[in-house]
Amino acid sequence: MTTVSIIGNGNMGTAIGDIVAAGGNTVEFIGRDADAAITGDIVVLAVGYPAVADIIAAHGEKLAGKVVVDITNPLNFETFDSLVVPADGSAASVIAGKLPDSTVLKAFNTNFAATLASKSVGGAAPTTVLIAGDDGDAKALLASVLGAAGVDAVDAGSMARARELEAIGFLQLTLAVQEKVGWAAGFALTK
Amino acid sequence: MTTVSIIGNGNMGTAIGDIVAAGGNTVEFIGRDADAAITGDIVVLAVGYPAVADIIAAHGEKLAGKVVVDITNPLNFETFDSLVVPADGSAASVIAGKLPDSTVLKAFNTNFAATLASKSVGGAAPTTVLIAGDDGDAKALLASVLGAAGVDAVDAGSMARARELEAIGFLQLTLAVQEKVGWAAGFALTK
């Protein structure tokens, strides 16, 4: 049994929480109350990138020793033409730098919430959660939580690959806002 | 009727040439003979990134006024851990800088050759060619050549989005060499 704490109760946090519960694992939703206890082995930061700094300020010390999952797409949402993180880095690596006592993973940022709920991308292929990070055990733990609910996960490589995952999330968002793909569709990984 | 000249006769050049011909357009294959005439309205550089510099040295002046399509994935193939172009740029933008009198597009780099031949990604979704570039007419011309053969194309945005297309191509190649996806599968764009 794994406990997953989710900070943020928007459509992504809700969809991820539903998957955790469907797999028979324990989910707890954490608000922004800095006094809230965080019991999860895995903590999902299910908020937008601009909110992450406040989350870390409120909860950072309690994240030590835990697997922390960054799901963000750090777009400049005014221009939809660039990311707000270093071109040779990623939001995930920035967050990892701020949480040196946590094991940070990148995941879920290439999945629209509706594809997590339906387990299908555009009705064409099963939803796959791409996971990047430098700790194989942490990636395997998250993959096991997903697998328990019948959701595929693929190890996308080291933390350096978060850059590519964020590029996919960025492009997918630009295509969706232009209505070139639907919010229940987008990039599917086929095998 | 559009004429497409293809430089390079590997599996990608062959697959692209087959699509051009299937759509009733004209295809010509160009070798590395610097004296060869190039008659195409569209010229596809269907070679690996390391070979592009020699192609431009041999044929560059003849590419003026033409739509030039870069299909490369500029990986460091020794490490499979990075690209060899600037992190905030792309191979396509580097090539565009060397061909100021041509209209450069990025396309095909997210498509494995087998998915161009079969028009299917992993048996799950139709193959989609993602095209990035700053000239809408050029993108529409390439899309029309593909559409004539029943191959979907999606305008992925400006030349700046070549960075994201190359990130997708990079990640897809790393997954394929690790046998996490097949060479007839990979990322499918669903709508």
Overall 3D form of chain A: globular
Strand order of the largest sheet of chain A: 2-1-3-4-5-8-9
Number of domains of chain A: 1
Cα(first) to Cα(last) distance of chain A is: 29 Å
What is the strand content of chain A?
15-25%
Second-tier CATH architecture of chain A? 3-Layer(aba) Sandwich
Main sheet properties of chain A: 7 strands, mixed
Helix content of chain A: 25-40%
Q: Biggest interface: chains and residue counts?
A: A-B, 36 and 36 residues
Q: Tally the beta strands of chain A.
A: 10
Quaternary form: homodimer
Class derived from helix and strand content of chain A = alpha/beta
User: What's the gyration radius of chain A in Å?
Assistant: 15 Å
Could you spell the SSE succession of chain A in H and E letters? Answer: EHEEHEHEHEEEHEHE
Characterization of this structure:
- The structure is a homodimer of 191-residue chains.
- The first copy, chain A, has a single domain, classed as NAD(P)-binding Rossmann-like Domain (Rossmann fold, 3-Layer(aba) Sandwich).
- Helices cover 35% and strands 23% of the residues of chain A.
- Chain A has six helices and ten strands.
- Chain A has helices spanning 11-22, 49-59, 91-98, 113-118, 136-148, 162-177; strands spanning 3-7, 26-30, 42-45, 67-70, 103-107, 120-121, 125-126, 128-132, 152-157, 186-190.
- The longest helix of chain A is centred in the last third of the chain and has 16 residues, at 162-177.
- The model of chain A has no long low-confidence stretch (mean pLDDT 97).
- Chain A binds chain B through residues 81-82, 86-88, 121-125, 154-158, 160-161, 163-165, 167-168, 170-171, 174-175, 180-182, 185-191, and chain B through 81-82, 86-88, 121-125, 154-158, 160-161, 163-165, 167-168, 170-171, 174-175, 180-182, 185-191.
- Strand 10 of chain A pairs antiparallel with strand 10 of chain B.
- Chains A, B: One of its GO terms (molecular function) is oxidoreductase activity.
- Chains A, B: This is Pyrroline-5-carboxylate reductase catalytic N-terminal domain-containing protein.
- Chains A, B: Residues 32-74 form the Pyrroline-5-carboxylate reductase catalytic N-terminal domain.
- Chains A, B: Keywords: Oxidoreductase.
